[in-house]
Write a structure and sequence with these properties.
Blueprint lengths: L23 E7 L3 H12 L2 E8 L6 H14 L7 E3 L13 H4 L21 H11 L5 E4 L4 H9 L3 H4 L2 E5 L15 H4 L2 H9 L4 E4 L1 H4 L6 H9 L3 H9 L1 H11 L7 H10 L4 E10 L10 E3 L16 E8 L1 H12 L2
Helix pairs in contact: 1-2, 1-13, 1-14, 4-5, 5-8
């Protein structure tokens, strides 16, 4: 089991907060950097039962994401959650990663001592297929990185959508600026082909994009509560997110950060934090400047779609109870 260097005492690990009943069975696909770590902590404290985690490229290479995922899980006391490394590159373009946002180690270069627990290699997509068949209709799939593992799983098994309870992704920038290109959000932009496979699949898909996640910046009072807390969970995240605060300060004009990935986890666990609209959507694959953009038809020229499992229909977040979301996050950290 891991500990946090120069922050948490020898052998000390955080205990997961008591989970409300019934817990939600989560299959978590991630590219664990800083906000993925925050999402894991949010889930551990708000009723997530992590069945397994799979990792992909994105914030950092997939193998690094696997090691980081095990490290965070173990630091939170979740030492029995298996982690499977998945796709190492996108389907149809070169690999790019974002260490400038998450630190060279993906955990903010904060001195987090890595877990030595074994990580299964190169089986992410296959593990998704296996687990969904093992527990049909039971698993909520939460994906907060590029969607390569999900895309590969759909290629492997076209029956996958009918076996998944529902899917929540952090991705896209509908009717707002991108963060990886003019209009492309990083998770979609890093593998647009995989994202299109996910969007066009006939499953209940909630999309938490930049149009809503950029409204979730923590107030300075919340930052202060995390940094003042002696709870091991808060001390872990408080160390890891210092790098993130520095990245976001010039973007949002305050020493804060945006809770991209934790929001996807929150909506999977507590959908009524938000209101939604259904829209037909797709991913731009060919545009010179618009490749990787999620394009949703917001015109209402035709009758609104009514079936969330209709191919190409996604559930977009309209409004969010940000204060409640922040309090849930702070509670999960013991802050």
């Amino acid at each position: 089991m891991s500990r946090i260097a120069s922050g948490i005492g020898e052998g000390a690990t955080a205990r997961p907060a008591p989970a409300p009943e019934p817990a939600v069975d989560i299959l978590f696909d991630c590219d664990t950097g800083i906000d993925d770590s925050m999402a894991i902590a949010y889930g551990a404290g708000n009723g997530a039962h992590f069945v397994a985690c799979t990792t992909t490229h994105g914030n950092v290479p997939s193998a690094t994401a696997g090691r980081n995922t095990v490290t965070v899980l173990d630091a939170l006391g979740l030492t029995d959650v298996p982690v499977h490394v998945g796709a190492h590159r996108p389907m149809a373009q070169a690999l790019q990663t974002a260490e400038w946002v998450h630190g060279e180690d993906g955990l903010g270069d904060a001195g987090v001592v890595q877990s030595t627990r074994p990580v299964a290699g190169h089986l992410g997509a296959a593990e998704i297929v296996r687990l969904v068949h093992e527990r049909p209709g039971e698993l909520t799939l939460v994906a907060v990185g590029p969607l390569t593992n999900l895309g590969l799983a759909l290629v492997m098994d076209p029956d996958l959508p009918r076996l998944v309870r529902n899917v929540v992704i952090m991705g896209g920038a509908v009717n707002t600026a991108g963060n990886a290109s003019h209009v492309g959000e990083a998770n979609v932009w890093h593998d647009p082909e995989a994202a299109q496979l996910v969007v066009e699949a006939p499953w209940d898909l909630t999309v938490a994009g930049l149009e809503i996640t950029m409204r979730t910046a923590l107030p300075t009072s919340a930052i202060a509560r995390i940094e003042a807390s002696q709870d091991p969970r808060a001390r872990l995240i408080g160390r890891v997110f210092q790098h993130y605060l520095g990245v976001y300060e010039p973007i949002v004009g305050a020493r804060t950060c945006v809770l991209h990935d934790p929001l996807a986890m929150a909506l999977a666990l507590e959908p009524d934090l938000a209101t939604y609209r259904l829209a037909r959507a797709g991913v731009e694959l060919r545009g010179e400047r618009s490749r990787g953009q999620v394009v949703a038809d917001l015109r209402n020229f035709e009758p609104d779609p009514t079936d969330p499992k209709e191919p190409g229909v996604v559930r977009l977040v309209d409004t969010l109870d940000v204060d409640r979301f922040h309090e849930n996050f702070l509670r999960a950290l013991g802050a």
